[in-house]
């Protein structure tokens, strides 16, 4: 039981740190890059990633708080997997295939 508790502890705070990384990345990007990447605006993504980070820090992976944790983690992963690569590509100049 002790090992499972430690695993949940690591998942809980690891996800909060992942959300914090996404929030900081969203904060540091140029506002025009979001529209150039055809994504939502910078303030919206800052709100999504910031709120997600807060939800993941406040609510546990297990228990009733999971109803808030799961969508928060999903939103963070959408930013990291979809929005972040497009922002990097747009700001780098994109690929000319």
Automatic annotation (TrEMBL):
Protein name as catalogued: DUF2516 family protein
Pfam name, any one: DUF2516
Classification via InterPro entries: DUF2516 (IPR019662)
UniProt keyword list: Membrane, Transmembrane, Transmembrane helix
TM annotation in the entry: 6-28, 44-61
Domain of life assignment: Bacteria
């Amino acid at each position: 039981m002790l090992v499972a508790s430690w695993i949940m502890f690591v998942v809980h705070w690891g996800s909060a740190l992942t959300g914090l990384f996404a929030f900081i990345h969203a904060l540091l990007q140029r506002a025009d890059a979001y529209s150039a990447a055809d994504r939502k605006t910078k303030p919206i993504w800052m709100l999504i990633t910031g709120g997600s980070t807060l939800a993941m820090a406040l609510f546990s992976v297990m228990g009733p708080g999971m109803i808030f944790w799961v969508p928060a983690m999903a939103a963070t992963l959408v930013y990291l997997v979809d929005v972040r690569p497009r922002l990097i590509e747009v700001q780098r100049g994109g690929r000319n295939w």
